[in-house]
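Hi all, long-time lurker, first post. I run a small reading group and we've been trying to get comfortable going from sequence to structure in the token notation. Rather than ask abstract questions, I figured I'd post a concrete chain and ask someone more experienced to write out its structure so we can walk through it together at our next meeting. Sequence below, copied exactly:
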Amino acid sequence: MRYLYIDTSSSFLYSALVEDSKVLSEVKEEYGQNLSEVALPKIVEMFTKNNLSPKDVDKIIVVNGPGSFTGIRIGITIAKVYAWSLNVPITTISSLEAMALSSENNKYHVPLLNARRGYVFAAIYDDKLKEVLKPQHIKLEDLLKEVERLDDYEFISNDEFDNEMKLEKYDPNLSKIVDYFKDKKDINPHSVNPEYLKKTAAEENKNG
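-- Answer (accepted) --
Happy to help. Here is the structure in token form:
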């Protein structure tokens, strides 16, 4: 079985072609504002390197948030069009789940993304990936209060924050992520939508 993994929820492109737990090709690069221009070509490049066509993939696993509003839409759009046009099964996962799953530490995992203005997108998982605090848009100070109740924990992030938290860098274990979620229930491509966990600026201004 071959799987295509896509995560564009941050300034990084994390993508891989995985066959039977083996990574055939992967991309783990930061592209910033150029992400929308390079994401699809980089994915196509992985197929080319392995002499594969999009029809050779058995399932797509795409991150649908939380994270960058623009970034999430890039990956979702690529995955939905691919899945719908070629009738390939598709499922979604959370960026925070992927971050926690990639850790090798037997601690409580606290993946977090900087949502600005003192807020973060965060969750807390135990070492079995069971939710202790569900993914949410939360004040950083409130998250820190939640963390104080834990015995042994780690913060996971590639973002910067205005405090002195010790952060474990997020380096996705793409084969592990795909293996863990490969049997997750397929969904209709038209039902694949972003999970922002927060209103967009336009929505906030409208409700203002």
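A couple of things your group might point at:
The first helix runs from residue 35 to 49.
The chain has a mean pLDDT of 94.
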